[in-house]
Structure formats: structure tokens, C-alpha cells
Automatic annotation (TrEMBL):
Organism of this sequence: Araneus ventricosus (Orbweaver spider)
PROSITE patterns: RT_POL
Residue span(s) of domain Reverse transcriptase: 1-155
Record InterPro entries: DNA/RNA_pol_sf, RdDP_mobile_element, Rev_trsase/Diguanyl_cyclase, RT_dom
Biological processes per GO annotation: DNA biosynthetic process
Protein name from the UniProt record: Reverse transcriptase domain-containing protein
Length: 283
């Protein structure tokens, strides 16, 4: 019964849902707008709620996450002409249309409504940590400065916002996200090389476990979104995994029983699609 009270727009603290589900839903809506004729632009507002969870719900209780979702329920109803996505206290509002002026007007109207909801629920939006961004395939609009206001303050624009640990970019081509994954993966490879000395160090089983636990999850975060990227970008991740084979004890993929990342993406994608189907049409 409680689950029926939590809106479908809320992806946080729900069984079978994750940050990736929310990011994928958002990225798909942007890509769909890009594919429309004429091409639609998307302006998004990522709103920061100041310590929302800690302020309204007692910490450490099993039911605290569910209670917070119930407390936030209703926010989606005040949004009338835009899309809203929620993951716990992460709030994103977006609007897609060809005319960016109409998008700005619609977003500003809805931000007034959501601010009223926040005040009624003793929530505080932090306009200095909230920002807006535009997603478009029109390169002449890459430097557009949307006039979006929250609590009377003009929001700053970000060209590569981080949303639920996934780095977005203007065309949703995942270039910034790939750069972050490869950088983080290579840093963690240093640990692998450190514990695999020639004359001492961990055995191959320990090295494999270290790689699969600390490095591979980094490279695969968000594959549901970035797997449609160019092969050139995907190869960057493959090179990080293959560089493990150049460590002193040579963790060769075959010997270590490690699948190529491309095969893992295919297998995991099939499982992910099956999961989405089990959740219903909305997801």
C-alpha cells in the first residue's frame, strides 16, 4: 500500500530502481527531443535541496528512506508543463521545445510553484548550488545563457553537469563521462600494479578480485547510457582494462577469466532490459 503512495517520478529508495534508471530516463527524453522534426532543445534545472533528508527524517531508522519519499510525494503534482525527475532529494526539472524562450517561461513558472511546495514543507532550495544547462545539437546555441530564476536568483549555467555521478554534456554523447571514467580507472590501476610486484605481491586470484571489485565497476558505471557512443570512445575503456595485462604478473584477460567489456555490456544490457520490463511500462 505504501509503495502506491510513492510517485512513479521518485526513483530513490524503491525496490528494483537505481540512479541509472533515473539517468537513463532523463537521457532518453533529451535524445528523443533531439530526434524530433524540427529538432527540439532541452533546458534543465538541477535543484539542490539543503540537507533535506537530515532535516525532516530521523536518521538510522529502517523506515527513514520510505518516510522521506512519502514526505516528498506531491512535489511532482505542482509541475504542470515540464518533466520532473526525483531520486531521493535530487530534483531535476526539464522542458523540451524548439523555442527556448517558451522553455524559459515554462520553467520559471514551474519553479515558482515548486518553491511554494518547498516552503510549505519546510524545505530549502539552495540557489547558489542549483544550476541550469541546455542540451542541443545546434552548435550556435552551445553558449546560450538561459534566464532561469530560483528564489529570485539567476541560476548559473553548467555545460557539463554531474547528475547522480554521471557527467552529462550538451549533446549527450558522453564524452565528459568517458574522460572521467578512464581517469578514475587508471588511478585505481596504480593500486593493482603496486600489489603485483615481480618478486612479491598478491597472487593472480587476488589481483583478479581487486580488479573486478575496484576498477571494473568504475568503467561500467552508466553503460546503459553510454553504450550507444562511438566505438572510439568505447575503446578508451577497453584500453584501461587491457592495461592491467601489462602489470608485472601479466593479468591476461584469458588467464584471469575476464570478459571483454563489450561482451559484458551485451550480456548486462539483456538483463537490464528484462528488469525494466518486469517493472512496467513507465520504466
Amino acid at each position: 500500500m505504501v509503495l502506491n503512495l510513492i510517485p512513479e517520478e521518485q526513483y530513490g529508495f524503491r525496490r528494483g530502481h537505481s540512479t541509472i534508471d533515473q539517468i537513463l530516463y532523463f537521457a532518453k527524453s533529451v535524445r528523443d527531443a533531439h530526434n524530433m522534426k524540427p529538432t527540439n532543445n532541452t533546458i534543465t534545472v538541477l535543484i539542490d535541496l539543503t540537507k533535506a533528508f537530515a532535516r525532516v527524517i530521523p536518521q538510522g531508522y529502517v523506515l527513514s528512506p520510505t518516510l522521506f519519499s512519502l514526505f516528498m510525494a506531491g512535489m511532482e503534482k505542482v509541475i504542470t508543463s515540464c518533466n520532473i525527475g526525483l531520486f531521493a532529494d535530487d530534483v531535476v526539472i526539464s522542458k523540451s521545445e524548439e523555442d527556448t524562450t517558451k522553455i524559459e517561461n515554462s520553467l520559471n513558472e514551474n519553479l515558482v510553484a515548486i518553491q511554494s511546495f518547498a516552503e510549505a514543507h519546510k524545505l530549502n532550495f539552495n540557489s547558489t548550488k542549483s544550476f541550469t544547462c541546455i542540451f542541443t545539437t545546434n552548435r550556435h546555441m552551445f553558449n546560450l545563457q538561459p534566464k532561469i530564476y530560483l528564489k529570485g536568483n539567476l541560476l548559473e549555467i553548467s555545460k557539463s553537469p554531474t547528475y547522480l555521478v554521471f557527467i552529462l554534456d550538451t549533446e549527450i554523447n558522453c564524452g565528459k563521462h568517458f574522460a572521467k571514467l578512464t581517469e578514475k580507472g587508471r588511478k585505481r590501476l596504480q593500486l593493482l600494479k603496486f600489489i603485483s610486484g615481480r618478486d612479491w605481491g598478491a597472487n593472480s586470484g587476488t589481483l583478479r578480485m581487486t580488479y573486478t571489485a575496484l576498477i571494473r565497476p568504475v568503467l561500467e558505471y552508466g553503460y546503459q547510457i553510454y553504450q550507444v557512443a562511438s566505438q572510439t570512445k568505447l575503446n578508451k575503456l577497453d584500453r584501461v582494462q587491457l592495461s592491467a595485462a601489462r602489470s608485472p604478473k601479466a593479468i591476461i584477460l584469458f588467464e584471469a577469466d575476464l570478459q571483454p567489456l563489450s561482451l559484458r555490456r551485451q550480456t548486462n544490457s539483456a538483463r537490464y532490459i528484462a528488469k525494466l520490463k518486469s517493472l512496467g511500462s513507465f520504466n
